What does this fold into?
Amino acid sequence: MTGGAGCIGSDLAEVLLSRGDRVRVIDNLSSGKVEHIEALLPNPNFRFIEADLLHREQWDDALDGVDMVYHLAANPDVKFTLGDATDKDLQQNLIVTYNLLESAREHGIRRFAFASTSAIYGISPVQPIPENVSPRPISLYGATKLGCEAMISAFSQLFGMQCWVLRFANIVGPKVRKRGRTVISDFLHNLAANPGRLQILGNGHQAKSYLLSNECVEAILYVVEHAHDPFNVFNLGGDDSLSVRRIADIVIGAMGLEDVELAFTGGEGGWPGDVPRFTLDVAAINALGWRARHTSEEAVTTAVHQTMHAAGISRAGELPACRQ
Amino acid sequence: MTGGAGCIGSDLAEVLLSRGDRVRVIDNLSSGKVEHIEALLPNPNFRFIEADLLHREQWDDALDGVDMVYHLAANPDVKFTLGDATDKDLQQNLIVTYNLLESAREHGIRRFAFASTSAIYGISPVQPIPENVSPRPISLYGATKLGCEAMISAFSQLFGMQCWVLRFANIVGPKVRKRGRTVISDFLHNLAANPGRLQILGNGHQAKSYLLSNECVEAILYVVEHAHDPFNVFNLGGDDSLSVRRIADIVIGAMGLEDVELAFTGGEGGWPGDVPRFTLDVAAINALGWRARHTSEEAVTTAVHQTMHAAGISRAGELPACRQ
It folds into this structure.
Protein backbone atom coordinates (compact mmCIF):
# COMPACT_ATOMS: atom_id res chain seq x y z
CA MET A 1 0.00 0.00 0.00
CA THR A 2 1.21 3.49 -0.79
CA GLY A 3 0.29 6.48 1.31
CA GLY A 4 -0.27 4.06 4.17
CA ALA A 5 0.81 6.57 6.81
CA GLY A 6 -1.92 8.95 5.71
CA CYS A 7 -5.34 9.36 7.26
CA ILE A 8 -7.16 6.90 5.03
CA GLY A 9 -4.20 4.62 4.33
CA SER A 10 -3.42 3.98 8.00
CA ASP A 11 -7.09 3.13 8.65
CA LEU A 12 -7.07 0.78 5.67
CA ALA A 13 -3.83 -0.87 6.84
CA GLU A 14 -5.38 -1.46 10.25
CA VAL A 15 -8.45 -3.15 8.80
CA LEU A 16 -6.37 -5.30 6.43
CA LEU A 17 -4.16 -6.44 9.33
CA SER A 18 -7.19 -7.15 11.49
CA ARG A 19 -8.45 -9.60 8.90
CA GLY A 20 -5.10 -11.35 8.80
CA ASP A 21 -3.51 -9.83 5.70
CA ARG A 22 0.15 -8.99 5.53
CA VAL A 23 0.62 -5.30 4.77
CA ARG A 24 3.58 -3.33 3.47
CA VAL A 25 3.25 0.42 3.58
CA ILE A 26 5.34 2.73 1.42
CA ASP A 27 5.14 6.36 2.48
CA ASN A 28 7.57 9.26 2.27
CA LEU A 29 5.95 10.94 5.28
CA SER A 30 5.56 14.16 3.31
CA SER A 31 2.03 14.33 4.64
CA GLY A 32 1.60 10.94 6.28
CA LYS A 33 2.78 10.61 9.87
CA VAL A 34 4.53 7.84 11.75
CA GLU A 35 2.10 8.35 14.63
CA HIS A 36 -0.73 7.15 12.38
CA ILE A 37 0.94 3.76 12.05
CA GLU A 38 2.79 3.58 15.38
CA ALA A 39 0.30 1.08 16.78
CA LEU A 40 0.80 -1.16 13.75
CA LEU A 41 4.60 -1.28 13.80
CA PRO A 42 4.91 -4.13 16.33
CA ASN A 43 2.60 -6.34 14.26
CA PRO A 44 4.74 -8.99 12.52
CA ASN A 45 2.44 -8.83 9.49
CA PHE A 46 3.18 -5.13 9.06
CA ARG A 47 6.18 -3.54 7.41
CA PHE A 48 6.82 0.14 6.89
CA ILE A 49 9.11 1.35 4.11
CA GLU A 50 9.92 5.04 4.26
CA ALA A 51 10.58 5.84 0.61
CA ASP A 52 9.86 8.34 -2.11
CA LEU A 53 7.76 6.82 -4.89
CA LEU A 54 9.52 9.05 -7.42
CA HIS A 55 12.68 7.01 -6.77
CA ARG A 56 11.89 3.44 -7.59
CA GLU A 57 15.20 2.09 -6.35
CA GLN A 58 14.16 3.08 -2.82
CA TRP A 59 11.13 0.78 -2.71
CA ASP A 60 11.04 -1.56 -5.69
CA ASP A 61 11.95 -4.62 -3.57
CA ALA A 62 8.95 -3.96 -1.35
CA LEU A 63 6.69 -5.25 -4.14
CA ASP A 64 8.31 -8.71 -4.13
CA GLY A 65 5.63 -11.30 -3.43
CA VAL A 66 2.83 -8.74 -3.15
CA ASP A 67 -0.50 -9.79 -4.68
CA MET A 68 -2.39 -6.52 -4.51
CA VAL A 69 -1.51 -2.83 -4.55
CA TYR A 70 -3.62 -0.16 -2.87
CA HIS A 71 -2.30 3.11 -4.26
CA LEU A 72 -3.34 5.94 -1.97
CA ALA A 73 -0.26 8.18 -2.12
CA ALA A 74 -0.78 11.53 -3.83
CA ASN A 75 -0.05 15.18 -3.56
CA PRO A 76 -2.41 16.01 -0.70
CA ASP A 77 -2.48 19.73 -1.49
CA VAL A 78 -5.62 19.78 -3.57
CA LYS A 79 -5.59 23.55 -3.37
CA PHE A 80 -3.53 25.39 -5.94
CA THR A 81 -2.42 28.91 -5.21
CA LEU A 82 -1.18 31.14 -7.99
CA GLY A 83 2.59 31.17 -7.66
CA ASP A 84 2.78 27.50 -6.65
CA ALA A 85 4.85 25.16 -8.79
CA THR A 86 2.59 23.69 -11.46
CA ASP A 87 4.34 20.32 -11.69
CA LYS A 88 3.75 19.01 -8.18
CA ASP A 89 0.67 17.04 -9.21
CA LEU A 90 2.39 15.85 -12.38
CA GLN A 91 5.22 14.44 -10.27
CA GLN A 92 3.36 13.19 -7.21
CA ASN A 93 0.32 11.84 -9.00
CA LEU A 94 1.13 10.94 -12.60
CA ILE A 95 4.78 9.96 -12.49
CA VAL A 96 4.45 8.21 -9.15
CA THR A 97 1.47 6.24 -10.43
CA TYR A 98 3.33 5.26 -13.58
CA ASN A 99 6.32 4.13 -11.48
CA LEU A 100 4.07 2.02 -9.32
CA LEU A 101 2.14 0.51 -12.24
CA GLU A 102 5.36 -0.39 -13.99
CA SER A 103 6.87 -1.95 -10.89
CA ALA A 104 3.63 -3.86 -10.25
CA ARG A 105 3.66 -5.11 -13.83
CA GLU A 106 7.27 -6.27 -13.56
CA HIS A 107 6.47 -8.00 -10.28
CA GLY A 108 3.53 -9.82 -11.85
CA ILE A 109 1.01 -8.16 -9.52
CA ARG A 110 -2.46 -8.61 -10.96
CA ARG A 111 -4.63 -6.47 -8.66
CA PHE A 112 -4.41 -2.71 -8.33
CA ALA A 113 -6.75 -0.34 -6.47
CA PHE A 114 -6.43 3.42 -6.90
CA ALA A 115 -7.68 6.31 -4.79
CA SER A 116 -9.05 8.72 -7.35
CA THR A 117 -11.20 11.74 -6.71
CA SER A 118 -14.43 13.46 -7.58
CA ALA A 119 -12.20 16.38 -8.62
CA ILE A 120 -11.69 14.68 -11.99
CA TYR A 121 -15.21 15.72 -13.01
CA GLY A 122 -14.72 19.47 -12.77
CA ILE A 123 -17.90 21.50 -13.09
CA SER A 124 -20.27 18.86 -14.41
CA PRO A 125 -23.50 19.88 -16.12
CA VAL A 126 -24.96 16.59 -14.82
CA GLN A 127 -25.73 16.54 -11.09
CA PRO A 128 -25.57 14.24 -9.22
CA ILE A 129 -22.54 13.06 -11.20
CA PRO A 130 -22.54 9.44 -12.39
CA GLU A 131 -19.31 7.66 -13.24
CA ASN A 132 -19.94 7.76 -17.00
CA VAL A 133 -19.99 11.51 -17.60
CA SER A 134 -17.16 12.98 -19.61
CA PRO A 135 -14.74 14.39 -17.02
CA ARG A 136 -13.38 17.89 -17.45
CA PRO A 137 -11.07 18.65 -14.52
CA ILE A 138 -10.38 22.27 -13.63
CA SER A 139 -7.55 21.67 -11.17
CA LEU A 140 -4.09 20.23 -11.66
CA TYR A 141 -4.95 17.75 -8.91
CA GLY A 142 -8.06 16.53 -10.72
CA ALA A 143 -6.35 16.58 -14.12
CA THR A 144 -3.43 14.44 -13.04
CA LYS A 145 -5.69 12.02 -11.15
CA LEU A 146 -7.66 11.58 -14.39
CA GLY A 147 -4.37 10.99 -16.19
CA CYS A 148 -3.58 8.29 -13.61
CA GLU A 149 -6.96 6.65 -14.17
CA ALA A 150 -6.28 6.60 -17.89
CA MET A 151 -2.87 4.95 -17.44
CA ILE A 152 -4.39 2.40 -15.08
CA SER A 153 -7.04 1.66 -17.70
CA ALA A 154 -4.34 1.04 -20.30
CA PHE A 155 -2.24 -1.12 -17.97
CA SER A 156 -5.35 -3.09 -17.06
CA GLN A 157 -6.07 -3.82 -20.71
CA LEU A 158 -2.50 -4.34 -21.91
CA PHE A 159 -1.16 -6.41 -19.04
CA GLY A 160 -4.22 -8.14 -17.63
CA MET A 161 -4.28 -6.31 -14.30
CA GLN A 162 -7.62 -6.20 -12.53
CA CYS A 163 -8.05 -2.62 -11.37
CA TRP A 164 -10.40 -0.64 -9.16
CA VAL A 165 -10.64 3.13 -9.52
CA LEU A 166 -12.40 4.72 -6.58
CA ARG A 167 -13.47 8.31 -7.01
CA PHE A 168 -13.61 9.64 -3.48
CA ALA A 169 -15.92 12.31 -2.18
CA ASN A 170 -14.28 14.62 0.39
CA ILE A 171 -13.06 12.25 3.10
CA VAL A 172 -13.18 13.47 6.69
CA GLY A 173 -12.08 11.80 9.87
CA PRO A 174 -10.48 12.07 13.26
CA LYS A 175 -6.86 12.35 12.21
CA VAL A 176 -5.53 15.85 12.49
CA ARG A 177 -4.35 17.27 9.22
CA LYS A 178 -2.25 20.25 8.45
CA ARG A 179 -3.81 23.64 8.30
CA GLY A 180 -4.85 24.43 4.77
CA ARG A 181 -5.50 20.81 3.86
CA THR A 182 -9.16 20.41 4.81
CA VAL A 183 -11.96 22.75 5.64
CA ILE A 184 -12.46 21.18 9.07
CA SER A 185 -8.84 21.42 10.17
CA ASP A 186 -8.70 24.94 8.79
CA PHE A 187 -11.74 26.09 10.70
CA LEU A 188 -10.65 24.40 13.93
CA HIS A 189 -7.11 25.73 13.79
CA ASN A 190 -8.18 29.19 12.85
CA LEU A 191 -10.92 29.46 15.46
CA ALA A 192 -8.58 28.10 18.12
CA ALA A 193 -6.16 30.89 17.23
CA ASN A 194 -8.84 33.57 16.86
CA PRO A 195 -12.24 32.64 18.30
CA GLY A 196 -13.85 35.93 17.30
CA ARG A 197 -13.47 35.78 13.54
CA LEU A 198 -13.44 33.09 10.88
CA GLN A 199 -12.29 33.58 7.34
CA ILE A 200 -14.23 31.49 4.84
CA LEU A 201 -12.76 30.98 1.38
CA GLY A 202 -15.28 31.80 -1.35
CA ASN A 203 -18.87 32.87 -0.72
CA GLY A 204 -19.64 29.94 1.60
CA HIS A 205 -22.17 28.46 -0.84
CA GLN A 206 -19.69 25.84 -2.01
CA ALA A 207 -21.35 22.51 -1.30
CA LYS A 208 -19.63 19.13 -1.54
CA SER A 209 -20.14 15.53 -0.66
CA TYR A 210 -18.46 14.26 2.54
CA LEU A 211 -17.74 10.75 3.73
CA LEU A 212 -16.18 9.49 6.97
CA SER A 213 -12.74 7.92 6.62
CA ASN A 214 -13.79 4.63 8.24
CA GLU A 215 -16.71 4.33 5.82
CA CYS A 216 -14.35 5.12 2.95
CA VAL A 217 -12.09 2.24 3.97
CA GLU A 218 -15.08 -0.05 4.28
CA ALA A 219 -16.26 0.96 0.81
CA ILE A 220 -12.83 0.43 -0.78
CA LEU A 221 -12.70 -3.12 0.55
CA TYR A 222 -16.32 -3.76 -0.37
CA VAL A 223 -15.80 -2.68 -3.97
CA VAL A 224 -12.57 -4.64 -4.36
CA GLU A 225 -14.33 -7.73 -3.08
CA HIS A 226 -17.56 -7.37 -5.05
CA ALA A 227 -16.71 -5.67 -8.36
CA HIS A 228 -15.29 -8.26 -10.73
CA ASP A 229 -14.72 -6.50 -14.04
CA PRO A 230 -11.17 -6.19 -15.32
CA PHE A 231 -11.49 -2.41 -14.84
CA ASN A 232 -13.92 -1.05 -12.27
CA VAL A 233 -14.81 2.59 -11.61
CA PHE A 234 -16.96 3.69 -8.69
CA ASN A 235 -17.93 6.95 -7.09
CA LEU A 236 -17.38 6.52 -3.40
CA GLY A 237 -19.50 8.69 -1.13
CA GLY A 238 -23.02 9.49 -0.08
CA ASP A 239 -25.70 11.04 -2.24
CA ASP A 240 -25.91 14.50 -0.69
CA SER A 241 -23.75 17.56 -0.16
CA LEU A 242 -23.09 20.10 2.57
CA SER A 243 -22.26 23.78 2.29
CA VAL A 244 -19.08 25.35 3.63
CA ARG A 245 -21.22 27.89 5.50
CA ARG A 246 -23.00 25.05 7.30
CA ILE A 247 -19.65 23.45 8.18
CA ALA A 248 -18.59 26.75 9.75
CA ASP A 249 -21.75 26.68 11.89
CA ILE A 250 -21.06 23.07 12.92
CA VAL A 251 -17.49 23.84 13.95
CA ILE A 252 -18.48 27.01 15.78
CA GLY A 253 -21.24 25.13 17.59
CA ALA A 254 -18.95 22.24 18.50
CA MET A 255 -16.40 24.65 19.95
CA GLY A 256 -19.13 26.40 21.96
CA LEU A 257 -18.31 29.75 20.38
CA GLU A 258 -20.74 32.59 19.86
CA ASP A 259 -20.81 35.81 17.89
CA VAL A 260 -18.07 34.69 15.52
CA GLU A 261 -17.69 37.14 12.69
CA LEU A 262 -17.67 35.30 9.36
CA ALA A 263 -15.43 36.91 6.76
CA PHE A 264 -16.05 35.59 3.26
CA THR A 265 -13.27 36.04 0.72
CA GLY A 266 -15.97 35.91 -1.98
CA GLY A 267 -16.28 34.19 -5.31
CA GLU A 268 -17.85 30.92 -6.38
CA GLY A 269 -14.92 28.65 -5.51
CA GLY A 270 -12.64 28.65 -2.49
CA TRP A 271 -9.43 28.67 -4.55
CA PRO A 272 -8.28 28.42 -8.18
CA GLY A 273 -9.47 25.05 -9.46
CA ASP A 274 -12.03 24.54 -6.70
CA VAL A 275 -15.23 22.86 -7.87
CA PRO A 276 -17.80 24.94 -6.00
CA ARG A 277 -20.72 22.53 -5.87
CA PHE A 278 -21.26 18.88 -6.60
CA THR A 279 -23.09 15.79 -5.51
CA LEU A 280 -22.10 12.30 -6.56
CA ASP A 281 -24.39 9.77 -8.13
CA VAL A 282 -23.68 6.71 -6.00
CA ALA A 283 -26.25 4.40 -7.61
CA ALA A 284 -23.49 2.09 -8.86
CA ILE A 285 -21.93 1.39 -5.47
CA ASN A 286 -25.39 1.19 -3.90
CA ALA A 287 -26.41 -1.39 -6.51
CA LEU A 288 -23.26 -3.33 -5.66
CA GLY A 289 -24.59 -3.49 -2.11
CA TRP A 290 -22.79 -0.73 -0.20
CA ARG A 291 -24.32 2.46 1.09
CA ALA A 292 -22.90 5.28 3.25
CA ARG A 293 -24.41 5.16 6.72
CA HIS A 294 -24.02 8.87 7.45
CA THR A 295 -25.15 11.94 5.58
CA SER A 296 -22.55 14.57 4.68
CA GLU A 297 -23.74 16.64 7.66
CA GLU A 298 -23.47 13.71 10.05
CA ALA A 299 -20.05 12.81 8.65
CA VAL A 300 -18.72 16.34 9.09
CA THR A 301 -20.24 16.70 12.57
CA THR A 302 -18.68 13.41 13.66
CA ALA A 303 -15.33 14.35 12.16
CA VAL A 304 -15.36 17.76 13.86
CA HIS A 305 -15.89 16.20 17.26
CA GLN A 306 -13.33 13.45 16.59
CA THR A 307 -10.77 15.96 15.41
CA MET A 308 -11.34 18.23 18.40
CA HIS A 309 -10.83 15.25 20.67
CA ALA A 310 -7.72 14.07 18.83
CA ALA A 311 -6.23 17.55 18.72
CA GLY A 312 -7.11 18.30 22.31
CA ILE A 313 -9.38 21.19 21.43
CA SER A 314 -12.02 21.62 24.09
CA ARG A 315 -15.26 23.51 23.80
CA ALA A 316 -14.47 27.21 23.65
CA GLY A 317 -10.90 26.18 24.34
CA GLU A 318 -7.52 26.54 22.91
CA LEU A 319 -5.58 24.16 20.69
CA PRO A 320 -2.80 23.11 23.08
CA ALA A 321 -0.81 20.75 20.97
CA CYS A 322 -1.56 21.22 17.34
CA ARG A 323 0.26 18.42 15.61
CA GLN A 324 1.42 19.79 12.34
CA MET B 1 4.00 24.80 -33.56
CA THR B 2 5.39 21.53 -32.29
CA GLY B 3 5.72 18.47 -34.48
CA GLY B 4 5.80 20.84 -37.44
CA ALA B 5 8.09 18.62 -39.47
CA GLY B 6 5.56 15.80 -39.30
CA CYS B 7 2.98 14.92 -41.90
CA ILE B 8 0.14 17.01 -40.51
CA GLY B 9 2.31 19.70 -38.92
CA SER B 10 4.18 20.54 -42.10
CA ASP B 11 0.89 20.84 -43.99
CA LEU B 12 -0.48 23.10 -41.26
CA ALA B 13 2.66 25.24 -41.30
CA GLU B 14 2.32 25.69 -45.04
CA VAL B 15 -1.29 26.85 -44.77
CA LEU B 16 -0.51 29.23 -41.91
CA LEU B 17 2.38 30.76 -43.90
CA SER B 18 0.19 31.06 -46.98
CA ARG B 19 -2.25 33.20 -45.07
CA GLY B 20 0.56 35.44 -43.87
CA ASP B 21 1.20 34.12 -40.37
CA ARG B 22 4.66 33.85 -38.94
CA VAL B 23 5.39 30.26 -37.97
CA ARG B 24 8.00 28.73 -35.69
CA VAL B 25 8.30 24.98 -35.78
CA ILE B 26 9.85 22.97 -32.98
CA ASP B 27 10.59 19.38 -33.92
CA ASN B 28 13.22 16.88 -32.80
CA LEU B 29 13.00 15.05 -36.13
CA SER B 30 12.46 11.76 -34.33
CA SER B 31 9.66 11.08 -36.77
CA GLY B 32 9.32 14.41 -38.56
CA LYS B 33 11.58 14.97 -41.55
CA VAL B 34 13.42 18.04 -42.79
CA GLU B 35 12.23 17.24 -46.31
CA HIS B 36 8.66 17.93 -45.20
CA ILE B 37 9.58 21.53 -44.42
CA GLU B 38 12.40 22.08 -46.91
CA ALA B 39 10.20 24.19 -49.15
CA LEU B 40 9.27 26.41 -46.21
CA LEU B 41 12.79 27.11 -44.96
CA PRO B 42 13.52 30.06 -47.31
CA ASN B 43 10.31 31.82 -46.21
CA PRO B 44 11.32 34.74 -43.94
CA ASN B 45 8.16 34.14 -41.88
CA PHE B 46 9.26 30.58 -41.12
CA ARG B 47 11.72 29.46 -38.50
CA PHE B 48 12.69 25.91 -37.68
CA ILE B 49 14.05 24.98 -34.25
CA GLU B 50 15.41 21.46 -33.99
CA ALA B 51 14.91 20.69 -30.31
CA ASP B 52 13.69 18.03 -27.93
CA LEU B 53 10.56 19.13 -26.10
CA LEU B 54 11.66 17.15 -23.04
CA HIS B 55 14.49 19.66 -22.65
CA ARG B 56 12.92 23.04 -22.25
CA GLU B 57 16.21 24.94 -22.32
CA GLN B 58 16.62 23.88 -25.96
CA TRP B 59 13.49 25.69 -27.15
CA ASP B 60 12.03 27.91 -24.46
CA ASP B 61 13.13 31.12 -26.23
CA ALA B 62 11.21 30.07 -29.32
CA LEU B 63 7.98 30.91 -27.50
CA ASP B 64 8.94 34.58 -27.06
CA GLY B 65 6.30 36.74 -28.69
CA VAL B 66 4.20 33.80 -29.85
CA ASP B 67 0.44 34.28 -29.59
CA MET B 68 -0.76 30.77 -30.31
CA VAL B 69 0.61 27.26 -29.86
CA TYR B 70 -0.36 24.34 -32.08
CA HIS B 71 0.87 21.27 -30.22
CA LEU B 72 1.14 18.36 -32.66
CA ALA B 73 4.28 16.64 -31.39
CA ALA B 74 3.73 13.21 -29.87
CA ASN B 75 5.05 9.71 -29.78
CA PRO B 76 3.98 8.61 -33.25
CA ASP B 77 4.21 4.91 -32.43
CA VAL B 78 0.59 4.31 -31.56
CA LYS B 79 1.26 0.61 -31.64
CA PHE B 80 2.56 -0.95 -28.48
CA THR B 81 4.38 -4.25 -28.67
CA LEU B 82 4.93 -6.33 -25.56
CA GLY B 83 8.53 -5.77 -24.59
CA ASP B 84 8.50 -2.09 -25.57
CA ALA B 85 9.33 0.47 -22.91
CA THR B 86 6.09 1.50 -21.22
CA ASP B 87 7.12 5.08 -20.50
CA LYS B 88 7.58 6.39 -24.03
CA ASP B 89 4.07 7.85 -24.18
CA LEU B 90 4.39 9.19 -20.65
CA GLN B 91 7.52 11.08 -21.69
CA GLN B 92 6.64 12.10 -25.24
CA ASN B 93 3.01 12.92 -24.64
CA LEU B 94 2.39 13.84 -21.00
CA ILE B 95 5.66 15.38 -19.88
CA VAL B 96 6.24 17.15 -23.18
CA THR B 97 2.73 18.60 -23.06
CA TYR B 98 3.22 19.77 -19.49
CA ASN B 99 6.55 21.41 -20.46
CA LEU B 100 4.87 23.20 -23.32
CA LEU B 101 1.85 24.32 -21.28
CA GLU B 102 4.10 25.66 -18.56
CA SER B 103 6.31 27.51 -21.01
CA ALA B 104 3.25 28.92 -22.77
CA ARG B 105 1.86 30.07 -19.42
CA GLU B 106 5.12 31.78 -18.49
CA HIS B 107 5.24 33.45 -21.90
CA GLY B 108 1.70 34.74 -21.47
CA ILE B 109 0.43 32.77 -24.47
CA ARG B 110 -3.35 32.64 -24.32
CA ARG B 111 -4.25 30.27 -27.17
CA PHE B 112 -3.36 26.59 -27.30
CA ALA B 113 -4.54 23.93 -29.78
CA PHE B 114 -3.82 20.26 -29.16
CA ALA B 115 -3.80 17.27 -31.48
CA SER B 116 -5.58 14.61 -29.49
CA THR B 117 -6.89 11.30 -30.73
CA SER B 118 -9.92 9.09 -30.98
CA ALA B 119 -7.75 6.52 -29.16
CA ILE B 120 -8.70 8.19 -25.88
CA TYR B 121 -12.16 6.60 -26.09
CA GLY B 122 -11.06 2.98 -26.03
CA ILE B 123 -13.80 0.47 -26.78
CA SER B 124 -16.84 2.70 -26.43
CA PRO B 125 -20.27 1.14 -25.90
CA VAL B 126 -21.67 4.20 -27.71
CA GLN B 127 -21.13 4.22 -31.50
CA PRO B 128 -20.68 6.57 -33.25
CA ILE B 129 -18.74 8.14 -30.39
CA PRO B 130 -19.69 11.69 -29.37
CA GLU B 131 -17.27 13.94 -27.50
CA ASN B 132 -19.12 13.62 -24.19
CA VAL B 133 -18.81 9.90 -23.54
CA SER B 134 -16.63 8.83 -20.66
CA PRO B 135 -13.30 7.88 -22.21
CA ARG B 136 -11.64 4.62 -21.24
CA PRO B 137 -8.38 4.31 -23.18
CA ILE B 138 -6.89 0.85 -23.66
CA SER B 139 -3.51 1.94 -25.03
CA LEU B 140 -0.68 3.89 -23.42
CA TYR B 141 -0.93 6.28 -26.36
CA GLY B 142 -4.62 6.95 -25.76
CA ALA B 143 -4.19 7.07 -21.99
CA THR B 144 -1.44 9.67 -22.07
CA LYS B 145 -3.27 11.77 -24.66
CA LEU B 146 -6.26 11.81 -22.32
CA GLY B 147 -3.92 12.86 -19.53
CA CYS B 148 -2.72 15.72 -21.75
CA GLU B 149 -6.29 16.80 -22.42
CA ALA B 150 -6.95 16.84 -18.69
CA MET B 151 -3.89 19.02 -18.00
CA ILE B 152 -4.88 21.37 -20.80
CA SER B 153 -8.35 21.61 -19.27
CA ALA B 154 -6.83 22.57 -15.91
CA PHE B 155 -4.42 25.10 -17.45
CA SER B 156 -7.30 26.58 -19.41
CA GLN B 157 -9.33 27.10 -16.26
CA LEU B 158 -6.52 28.13 -13.93
CA PHE B 159 -4.60 30.46 -16.22
CA GLY B 160 -7.21 31.73 -18.63
CA MET B 161 -5.85 30.00 -21.74
CA GLN B 162 -8.30 29.43 -24.56
CA CYS B 163 -7.76 25.85 -25.69
CA TRP B 164 -8.87 23.60 -28.51
CA VAL B 165 -8.65 19.85 -28.14
CA LEU B 166 -9.02 18.07 -31.48
CA ARG B 167 -9.61 14.35 -31.34
CA PHE B 168 -8.33 13.11 -34.66
CA ALA B 169 -9.62 10.16 -36.61
CA ASN B 170 -6.87 8.20 -38.40
CA ILE B 171 -5.17 10.78 -40.58
CA VAL B 172 -3.87 9.65 -43.95
CA GLY B 173 -2.01 11.54 -46.61
CA PRO B 174 0.69 11.58 -49.23
CA LYS B 175 3.72 11.86 -47.00
CA VAL B 176 5.59 8.61 -46.70
CA ARG B 177 5.74 7.31 -43.18
CA LYS B 178 7.88 4.65 -41.66
CA ARG B 179 6.91 1.05 -41.96
CA GLY B 180 4.86 0.02 -38.95
CA ARG B 181 3.37 3.46 -38.44
CA THR B 182 0.27 3.34 -40.62
CA VAL B 183 -1.68 0.63 -42.29
CA ILE B 184 -1.22 2.20 -45.73
CA SER B 185 2.56 2.55 -45.51
CA ASP B 186 2.76 -0.95 -44.06
CA PHE B 187 0.77 -2.50 -46.88
CA LEU B 188 2.62 -0.57 -49.59
CA HIS B 189 6.07 -1.36 -48.20
CA ASN B 190 5.28 -4.98 -47.59
CA LEU B 191 3.68 -5.58 -50.98
CA ALA B 192 6.57 -3.83 -52.72
CA ALA B 193 8.92 -6.22 -50.97
CA ASN B 194 6.71 -9.29 -51.46
CA PRO B 195 3.92 -8.85 -54.02
CA GLY B 196 2.58 -12.38 -53.51
CA ARG B 197 1.60 -12.26 -49.88
CA LEU B 198 0.31 -9.65 -47.44
CA GLN B 199 0.24 -10.06 -43.70
CA ILE B 200 -2.73 -8.35 -42.06
CA LEU B 201 -2.62 -7.72 -38.32
CA GLY B 202 -5.78 -8.99 -36.61
CA ASN B 203 -8.72 -10.58 -38.38
CA GLY B 204 -9.10 -7.76 -40.91
CA HIS B 205 -12.49 -6.75 -39.53
CA GLN B 206 -11.00 -3.79 -37.66
CA ALA B 207 -12.81 -0.74 -39.00
CA LYS B 208 -11.81 2.84 -38.28
CA SER B 209 -12.51 6.35 -39.39
CA TYR B 210 -10.06 7.94 -41.85
CA LEU B 211 -9.51 11.56 -42.81
CA LEU B 212 -7.15 13.12 -45.35
CA SER B 213 -4.32 15.19 -43.89
CA ASN B 214 -5.24 18.32 -45.86
CA GLU B 215 -8.82 18.11 -44.60
CA CYS B 216 -7.50 17.63 -41.08
CA VAL B 217 -5.48 20.84 -41.35
CA GLU B 218 -8.50 22.66 -42.74
CA ALA B 219 -10.64 21.38 -39.85
CA ILE B 220 -8.08 22.39 -37.20
CA LEU B 221 -8.04 25.95 -38.50
CA TYR B 222 -11.81 26.02 -38.90
CA VAL B 223 -12.41 24.93 -35.31
CA VAL B 224 -9.86 27.36 -33.88
CA GLU B 225 -11.52 30.17 -35.79
CA HIS B 226 -15.13 29.27 -35.03
CA ALA B 227 -15.21 27.63 -31.58
CA HIS B 228 -15.12 30.33 -28.94
CA ASP B 229 -15.46 28.59 -25.57
CA PRO B 230 -12.55 28.81 -23.15
CA PHE B 231 -12.09 25.04 -23.60
CA ASN B 232 -13.26 23.38 -26.81
CA VAL B 233 -13.31 19.67 -27.62
CA PHE B 234 -14.14 18.33 -31.08
CA ASN B 235 -13.98 15.02 -32.83
CA LEU B 236 -12.28 15.60 -36.12
CA GLY B 237 -13.13 13.22 -38.92
CA GLY B 238 -15.92 11.89 -41.08
CA ASP B 239 -18.91 9.89 -39.94
CA ASP B 240 -18.06 6.48 -41.35
CA SER B 241 -15.40 3.80 -41.04
CA LEU B 242 -13.47 1.47 -43.29
CA SER B 243 -12.22 -2.06 -42.64
CA VAL B 244 -8.58 -3.07 -42.77
CA ARG B 245 -9.51 -5.86 -45.17
CA ARG B 246 -11.00 -3.28 -47.55
CA ILE B 247 -7.84 -1.17 -47.28
CA ALA B 248 -5.81 -4.21 -48.30
CA ASP B 249 -8.02 -4.57 -51.39
CA ILE B 250 -7.58 -0.87 -52.23
CA VAL B 251 -3.79 -1.07 -51.95
CA ILE B 252 -3.59 -4.31 -53.92
CA GLY B 253 -5.83 -2.81 -56.62
CA ALA B 254 -3.83 0.42 -56.78
CA MET B 255 -0.61 -1.54 -57.19
CA GLY B 256 -2.17 -3.64 -59.95
CA LEU B 257 -1.43 -6.87 -58.11
CA GLU B 258 -3.43 -10.06 -58.38
CA ASP B 259 -3.68 -13.30 -56.46
CA VAL B 260 -2.15 -11.83 -53.33
CA GLU B 261 -2.39 -14.26 -50.45
CA LEU B 262 -3.78 -12.54 -47.37
CA ALA B 263 -2.34 -13.86 -44.12
CA PHE B 264 -4.32 -12.72 -41.08
CA THR B 265 -2.55 -12.80 -37.73
CA GLY B 266 -5.98 -13.18 -36.12
CA GLY B 267 -7.69 -11.61 -33.13
CA GLU B 268 -10.01 -8.64 -32.78
CA GLY B 269 -7.34 -5.93 -32.65
CA GLY B 270 -4.21 -5.50 -34.71
CA TRP B 271 -1.92 -5.08 -31.69
CA PRO B 272 -2.13 -4.74 -27.90
CA GLY B 273 -4.19 -1.63 -27.19
CA ASP B 274 -5.69 -1.44 -30.67
CA VAL B 275 -9.33 -0.32 -30.73
CA PRO B 276 -10.76 -2.72 -33.30
CA ARG B 277 -13.79 -0.78 -34.50
CA PHE B 278 -15.09 2.72 -34.10
CA THR B 279 -16.88 5.52 -35.85
CA LEU B 280 -16.84 9.10 -34.60
CA ASP B 281 -19.89 11.20 -33.99
CA VAL B 282 -18.97 14.40 -35.83
CA ALA B 283 -22.26 16.23 -35.26
CA ALA B 284 -20.48 18.90 -33.21
CA ILE B 285 -17.97 19.93 -35.87
CA ASN B 286 -20.69 19.63 -38.55
CA ALA B 287 -22.91 21.95 -36.51
CA LEU B 288 -20.00 24.39 -36.30
CA GLY B 289 -20.04 24.42 -40.10
CA TRP B 290 -17.30 22.03 -41.18
CA ARG B 291 -17.77 18.66 -42.83
CA ALA B 292 -15.30 16.16 -44.29
CA ARG B 293 -15.54 16.13 -48.09
CA HIS B 294 -14.36 12.54 -48.51
CA THR B 295 -15.58 9.29 -47.05
CA SER B 296 -13.09 7.07 -45.25
CA GLU B 297 -12.85 4.92 -48.40
CA GLU B 298 -12.22 7.92 -50.62
CA ALA B 299 -9.66 9.29 -48.17
CA VAL B 300 -7.74 6.03 -48.03
CA THR B 301 -7.91 5.53 -51.81
CA THR B 302 -6.59 9.04 -52.38
CA ALA B 303 -3.85 8.59 -49.81
CA VAL B 304 -2.78 5.27 -51.30
CA HIS B 305 -2.34 6.82 -54.73
CA GLN B 306 -0.63 9.91 -53.32
CA THR B 307 1.74 7.77 -51.25
CA MET B 308 2.58 5.54 -54.21
CA HIS B 309 3.36 8.62 -56.21
CA ALA B 310 5.45 10.22 -53.47
CA ALA B 311 7.32 7.00 -52.75
CA GLY B 312 7.84 6.20 -56.39
CA ILE B 313 5.86 2.98 -56.28
CA SER B 314 4.40 2.23 -59.66
CA ARG B 315 1.58 -0.14 -60.47
CA ALA B 316 2.80 -3.69 -59.97
CA GLY B 317 6.17 -2.13 -59.42
CA GLU B 318 8.89 -2.02 -56.89
CA LEU B 319 9.57 0.58 -54.21
CA PRO B 320 12.79 2.10 -55.54
CA ALA B 321 13.62 4.62 -52.87
CA CYS B 322 11.75 3.97 -49.70
CA ARG B 323 12.47 6.94 -47.56
CA GLN B 324 12.60 5.70 -44.00
The first strand of chain B starts at residue 23 and ends at 27.
